Structure formats: C-alpha cells, structure tokens
Fold this sequence. Notes:
single chain; alpha/beta; 8 helices; 32% helix
Amino acid sequence: LQGITKVFSKGTVDEVTALEKVNLDVKAEDYVTIIGSNGAGKTTLLNVIAGVYPPERGSVKISGADVTTLAEYRRARYMGRVHQDPKIGTAANLTIEENLSFALLRGRRRGLRGALNAERRDLFQSVLAPLGLGLEKRLKAMVGTLSSGQRQAIALTMATMSKPALLLLDEHVANLDPRTAQVVFDLTEMVVQREKLTTLMITHNMECALRYGNRLIMMHRGNIIVDINEETK
Length: 233
C-alpha cells in the first residue's frame, strides 16, 4: 500500500477518514498480525486491499501488479479471505465438496459441471485430513449442518487451497467460543506455515497477536502507529 487514504461520507457532517496516507510493505511469507481499537481502520485496510472499497488516493500492489482499479471479483485470484462470521465465507445449502469446488475455481469460469470427480475428491480429502476434524470423511455433508468451528475450518481451507498470493483474516475467531477459537488459531498457524502464505490477520487478542506471526502492526485513527518485527517482539 502506498499513500492510501479512504474517506467515508465525504462532504457530509458524517465524514470520517478511515485511513490516512497509509503505507505498508509486506514481504513474501510475512505473517502480520494487526491490532487496534474499534474504528482504528483495521477492517477498512483489508477491504481496500480486497477491493471492497476504492481508495480516494494511493495505490495497491500485489505481487508487483497494480490492482488499485481492479474490481473485487478480479482480485479474487490474488487472495483468500476468512471473515469474522463463518456464514459469510461458506454456502450453507451446499455440501462441503461443492463449497471446496467453488473455491478451487476462484478466478476462473465457475460452475459445478465436471468439477466434482474422483481426482478432486481426493484433493479435498488431502487438504481436510490434516485439520484433524474428520471433515474429509463428510464431503457430502451440508455445510449448514456443521458447527461454527467446523464451518470456519472449511472457510479457511477454501481461502487457502489455491495458494493465494495473500491471505486476509478478519477477526476470523471472534464469533467462536474460546476453546474452538484456539483450535482455529492452531489450524491457521499450521496452514500458513505449511503453504508458506503471506498473511494479514486482524485480532483483538494481544496475546495471540504476539504469539502468532513474525510482525505486529498497531493501528489508531486510520494510521499505523506501531510496526514491529519478530526480533523486536
């Protein structure tokens, strides 16, 4: 990110500068944790990267490509994202294997015709088995019947199975109970390390922010006020 500024309700009494001239250079395989109070600009930062909101000023580059003007759906081939609500990243009325098929086709022409075959089912089982949740044996189960933790594990798998250039985690354990949240945190760590993914993770948990990743960023009022690496932590 270079000189990113994002303003909401511009020109009205409700005008808010969510990001102000933000610069952020993330290296390949960095695992960056992002903390800050409500309204600090954390989620807006991810939304600008993902293309949900266009910035007023500044540029966004991913793997050397300028994606500032690309629509959100065109950026999908560059990144995976797991949201705070497990229901956002998965389709309840589709099976596990159907959800994974759509994720596998991210950035390409979609459709299930020819997408579900023995080879791909073997692939789905191979990516689910390491999670240790037994989901590889339930490929035909409807995602809506899974627990929140299982569903978030599916969302994480969907976001990472195509090995994106960038993984965005937006408080992805916030809606889970403490025990399940820890399981998903551990699964995230395993997947990120195994696939060597470049990752940005928002969390309100300072302990987790310090424990996971190799770099920590603190935001306040639309600015990055702290940026420390693993050695400093």
